Amino acid sequence: MQNRLLTQAEDIIRQGGVVAVAFEHLFGLAADAANAKAVERVFEIKKRDQGSPVAVIIPSVYDMDRFVSSVPGEAWSLIDAWWPGPLTIVLRARQGLNERIAGESGMIGMRVPGSCDAARLCTDSGFALTATSANVSGSDAPVSTEDLMQSGIAEKVDLVIPADALDGQPSTVVEVTEKGVRLIRKGAIIV
Questions:
Q1: Spatial separation of the C-alpha atoms in residues 183 and 191, rounded to whole Å
Q2: pTM tops 0.85
Q3: Which residues have CB under 8 Å from 45's CB, separation 6+?
Q4: Which of 6, 41, 150, 169 has a Cα-to-Cα distance from 178 of 20 to 30 A?
Q5: Residue 165's closest CA among 143, 180, 190?
Q6: Torsional class of 103: left (φ above 0), alpha (ψ -120 to 50), beta (otherwise)
Q7: Cis peptide before 86 (omega within 30 of 0)
Q8: What average pLDDT does the segment 85-108 reach?
Q9: CATH class of 2-185
């Protein structure tokens, strides 16, 4: 059943839809990060502040050049140590990216996720996907299919891919620039 749902999710994302899917530690909203209308819909579903960017998951490290202008050496050390996995690395975005993805700061959060349905969806489809929790901004992120259904988010997406209960830890987020590494959010791993 899971394979069938993931195939259905690929088709939905290809058509500009939004899917609720399990990431390593919590449910997230996945949409084609290159589709401005799909990304806008993610913002509407979450009631997210327009100035807050949304991170992106990619199938492999080789897909980063579509989104970032450069990768400092310290970022490569973190990538080698923690990808695939729950580490989001914020880097300088390429010029011309959708502001919802890059944010007003011109930075973008990138991640190659570890083993989870979102990673399979990303890899199987070849899409870079939005990677934001499946909740209304400011509320708790759902860690079970039941939580997702009770939150009201399930009614706003095109498909929910059910999953076993998750532990609820978000990805760790670090910003890497030429000046060094800065921890933005503590999460599933310690860097």
A1: 8
A2: yes
A3: 18, 29, 153, 156, 157
A4: 169
A5: 143
A6: left
A7: no
A8: 90
A9: alpha beta
